[in-house]
Amino acid sequence: MNAQSRFNGIFQRKSETSLAEPQPDSAVYDPDADRVREVKSTIPEFKRAEIDAQLSAILDAPAAYGETVSANFKRKEHDLGQVMATLNAVESLAMQRRLASPQPHDELAQKFARMVVERRNRLLAFLADNRRRAAASGGRRVA
What we know:
The protein is an all-alpha fold. The protein is built from 7 helices and 2 strands.
C-alpha cells in the first residue's frame, strides 16, 4: 500500500466509497459515534489537575540562588521529565498531543511552548516513547 492510498484511507468515511471531506484523525473524532472525544479526556480530571499544577510549578519556578541560566533550564527539563514519567502510555500520548499543539486557552501548553525547541522536542519525544518503554519492560511500570 503506497502512501497516497494510506492517506486517502484515513480520510475516507466508513459508509461511503468515495473520498469525503477531510476529517480529523479517527482516534480523536468518530463521526459514526456522534460524539467528539477530546484527547484530554483520557486523563482523569483529578489526576490531570494535579499533573498540570506540578508541571506549571516547575515551569514557573525561578532559578535557585547562584544557579546559571543553563543549569536552571536543565534542572527544569529534568524535573518535567520526572513528572511525565509517572504517566502511563495512554496519558503520555494525550499529554504529548496536548503539548505538541498548544491551544490558546491552554495555559500549561502555552508555557511549555515557550521552552527552547531542543528541550521541548526531547520532552515530547519522551512522552511519545512511553508506550515502547512499557512494552520493552514487559508491561511493568517504567519510570
